Structures are given as C-alpha cells and as structure tokens.
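Incident review: delayed structure delivery

Summary: a single-chain prediction request sat in the queue longer than the usual turnaround. Root cause was a stuck worker, restarted by the on-call engineer. No data loss occurred. The affected request and its eventual output are reproduced below so the record is complete for anyone auditing the incident later.

Affected input:
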Amino acid sequence: MHADPRVLHVRSSAGLYGAEYVILGLLPALANIGVESKLLCLDNQHLDEQPLYAKARALRLRAERVACRGRFDFAAVHALRRAIDAQPDAVLHVHDYKSALFAWLARGRRRVPIIITAHGQFSFTPALQLYHHIELRLMRRFDRVCAVAAQMQPLLEAAGVPRANIRIVENGIDTIRFAPEVQALPRADFDIAEDAVVFGAAMRLTEQKNPLGLVAAFAQVAARLPRAVLIIAGDGPLRAAIAQSAKAYGIEQRMRLAGVCADMARFYTMLDVFVLPSHYEGLPLALLEAMAAGCKVVSTRVGQVGQVLGDLDIETVPPSDPAALARAMCRAASRLACAAGTRERIVECYSTARMANAYAQIYRELWSRHGRLAA
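Output delivered after worker restart:
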C-alpha cells in the first residue's frame, strides 16, 4: 500500500484551454511531492484529434484515452469502471460535467472518493445549462468540491453543496516556464516592427472573453499611439467577427490574429502590455501567466482579478467599457516597467507547487477517511 494516494483525473475536453493547462501543470507538480496521477481523457466526438491526450503524451504524463462516441456512451462508463477496478485504492478527481456524470456512474457502490474542481464554466445554451444543472446536483453527492475562486462558494452553497465539502484551491502556473528571462518570439514572425508598441491578449475567441470589446478599445489606442499593434493568441467562434470588426475600424493592418500559439511563454515576453478584457471570469490563467512573465498588465475588474492583484500598482477597469480600457492601455504603455512585485506575487501565491500541495492535502484527507493509508 502506498504512503500517498493515487489519483485518477478525468476530463472531457474540447481543446487546450485554461482548465486543460491547469491539469497538465498539476500532474507533474503532484509527482514532485509523491502523489501518483493518471489522466483519463474522455474522447470528444466532435474532434478528429484529441488535443488534451496528445499534449499529455507529449509532456510524458501518464494518460489514457477513453473512447466516447456521443453525449452519453455506456461503453465509456464501463471503460472508466475498468480503470477504477484496476486502481481500487485511487481517488477520482473529475474536472467537468461529463466526466463528473460518467465517473459517478462508473463508481457505483465502490468506496472510491470523488472530488470535482469547478473550473468556472459558464452556461449559455439550453443544453449547457442543463449539463451545468446536472453537475451541480452531482456535486451535492461528491466528497469534496474545489472552486478556483472564492466568489464561487456562495453559488455552490446556494445550489445545495454542503459548506463543509467545499474547498477553495486557486489555479497555479509553472513559474519556471513563464518567466521574464524566456526568449521572446521574434516579432518579425508576425510582421511586427521591432520598435512597435505591442499589446497582446491570450483567449478563446468567445463572447465571455470580449475580444470585440478589445478591438473597439484598440481602435482608440491606435488613434493615439501610431506605433501600436495588437496581437491576439487563440481561436474560437468569433474569429471572423473580430477580423470584420478590425476592418470596420480601419485597423486591420495593425492587428494580428495569431491563432493557437504553441509556445505561450515566449508569446508573453514578446509583448509590451498584456490585456485581459473579459466580461467575466473565475481565476483567469492567462493573467497569471502574463504576470509571471513580467508583463505590464491591464485588466477588467472581474472574478478573482482583484484578489490576484491586491495592492499592486496595476490598473483595472470596469468590464464592457472600451473607452476606459483604451485609456488604461495607453497609460500602461507609457510606463517604463511592470509594477513592482508582479512576478513575485505569482511565485508566492499562484504556483503549480502551491496548487499541488493544496490538492494533495485534500486527497490525503479523503484517503485517510476511507481507510486507505498504509499502516
């Protein structure tokens, strides 16, 4: 019997976004403190490739694909059941509504603890709202519910999750990978002049992230700063609308839609100012990464941003206010350096090591309660 619990992480993923990178950073950080983990990736039937599984394998993490042919697939449930039976002394850690449902059904009457991380998914369509409702009902039955932001706790309690079962575990990032010393991507690769003032964002191109509001703000910035350029890393359903909006503002020659970037650590160090324009967030991973990389930062006041920034001299603005965002972007560009203590705040409070230790404490608590600690 191992002195530390072993953990089966389960995730149904639509691509490589914030939650996926949290998981990919968590597994090696857990290994560093003696907690063995394996990632079970539920296939997304809409994707030809499975990016989370591919990235986990590229990082040499223990990972396994679980075939899943639709929104609900009994064969996938049985596959998870086999994985649980092969590792009966494990803790199940699920990361989304689908993996929560499938893992709950797969566990059955087995005495296997389940914890779930609420990564801050937001519901838009009726289908997503239904899935979110199912997830909340399951959370009432799980052993622990981990929220990435303190603001989520009242919502979970209102949904019937017992307060005693809720833990706040804020996201962490790899502060070695994201650092000011990392060599920047060549600006020439994006047809950006070396003397340009480069504003940048990293986001999924969806309504929540407000890329169209960022374009509107940058149109005002571009009128004031002749050398300003905006580059956005990421992809999503609003890509065409963003390009159309930039053309309507007459700034299409000063914008770059970089798509999915394979090396975000080098992307951040290419920027002069990082901008987070979101309408709403939980704990935005891109903000943590940019701060760790030593970027000057401008953000909307959303989610956990205020707690992250604390007393740092970093300007925040109300969400959905392009004029205020533009003014803050111009002021940030005029600063000689990022705010003092920016990187230090992330290293101290938002590292993968801190996050892994917080989860390990929860795993050990549950494992001990279920009688799985070695004598």
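Verification: The radius of gyration is 21 Å.
Action items: add queue-age alerting; document worker restart procedure.
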